[in-house]
Amino acid sequence: MEERVALITGVSRRIGIAAALARRFAAAGYRLQLTGLPGYDEAQPYGGDPDGVPGLLAELAQVTGDPDVARYRAADLTSPTAPAELVETAVRTHGRLDVLVATHAYSTHTPLGKLDADEIDRHLVVNVRATLLLAEAFAAAFDAGSGGRLVLFSSGQRLGPMPGELAYAASKAGVENLTRQLSPLLIPRGITVNCVNPGPTDTGYASPATLAAVGQLFPGGEWGRPDDAARLVEWLCSRDGRWITGQVIDSEGGFNRYT
Fold this sequence. Notes:
Blueprint: E1 5-8, H1 17-27, E2 31-36, H2 38-42, H3 52-64, E3 70-74, H4 82-94, E4 99-102, H5 117-141, E5 148-153, H6 166-186, E6 191-197, H7 208-215, H8 226-236, E7 247-250
Keywords: Oxidoreductase
Pfam family, one: adh_short_C2
Organism: Plantactinospora mayteni
C-alpha cells in the first residue's frame, strides 16, 4: 500500500480516543500529523496529562521504529485560520493528506436556566465551524482522486437528551448534519464522509460513581474503550470502507440510555 497520511485532531491525553487512533494508524503504516489543545483538558475537572503528547510521540516512534512517524502541532480551533493551517502543515510536512479524523470537542456544563451566549458560541465555533473549515481545507488539498476519508465524531445526541450539556448537544447535532451535507459533495472527489458515535467511552473523565452507574446500562456491564472507536475508524479509512459514506454510525456496545 502506498504510504498514507492522516491528520487527527483532539490529541492530548494518552488515555483518549485520539491517542488510540494514532496508535492504530501508526501500526497500519500511516504517517501522522497530530494536533490538540492540552490546556483545555488541564482546565477540566478530570485534569490533563502533562506527559501526554511527548509520551505518545515517543511511544509511536518506538513501536514503528521511525522517529518521524508522527508530528504534533498544538492548535486553538477557536481561531478561524487554524483549520487551514493544520491541513497546510500536514501537506507540507508529509507531502500529502489522505485522511482527516476530527476527534476534537469542546464541552462544558450548559443547563437550561444558566445558558451563556459566549459559551454557546464557543461550542459552535469549535465543534461546528472548525470542523466545517477543516473539511473544506482537506477537500481543497486532496488530489489523489480516490481513497480520501473524512471521519467526524458525535455523541448520539439524537438518541436521547443531554439536559446538562445543551450547547454541546446542539453543536454535535450540527456535526451529524454536516456528515449528510458533505458526503454528496466530497464523494465525487474520492472522499468518503462518515460520523462515529462511540457511546460512553472510558477516557478517564468519569468519577468512580459515574463509571459504576453508567456501566449498568451496558449489557456487558462496562464502558466502551478508546480502542473500540479506533478500530471502527481504522476500518472506515481502509480500502474495505470505500463503500460507506454519509453515515452516522452508532457503535455503543448495546448501551441502553432508556433503562
